[in-house]
Amino acid sequence: MALPLALLALLLAAAPPAAAPARPGLWIGPIRACAGTVAEATVGEDEFREPNLTIRFREGWADVLHRVTAARVGLPMAIRLDGRVLAAPFVREPIAGGIIAIAPIAAEEGEAIRAAALGHC
Questions:
Q1: Which end of the chain has less Cβ packing within 10 Å, N or C?
Q2: Picking from 23-32, 65-74, 109-118, which range would have the lowest pLDDT averaged per residue?
Q3: Largest Cα–Cα distance in the chain?
């Protein structure tokens, strides 16, 4: 009887940890993009006529975005919507001014991201 219990304990110890629950909403790295942090979100086109989304963070949060991106230069920073990774671009330089553009995106997806960026936190 001791062998099956030991085997069970070994199997439980080897089991991968449960996945963390998906965090709802739009996240730019560790920053929640929502009405409390975002001043404006617009869907438009980039210079190649590809749909994109531009997000302008509120004053104070622009500084947070700058600090976060400065710490991640050379590393990827995930952009997630309801736990799903939309993109994970490498940060080439700190983002000053509090404005980011996500492109290219499908037009319908842009509206969903925009709604999340302007939605309740």
A1: N
A2: 109-118
A3: 70
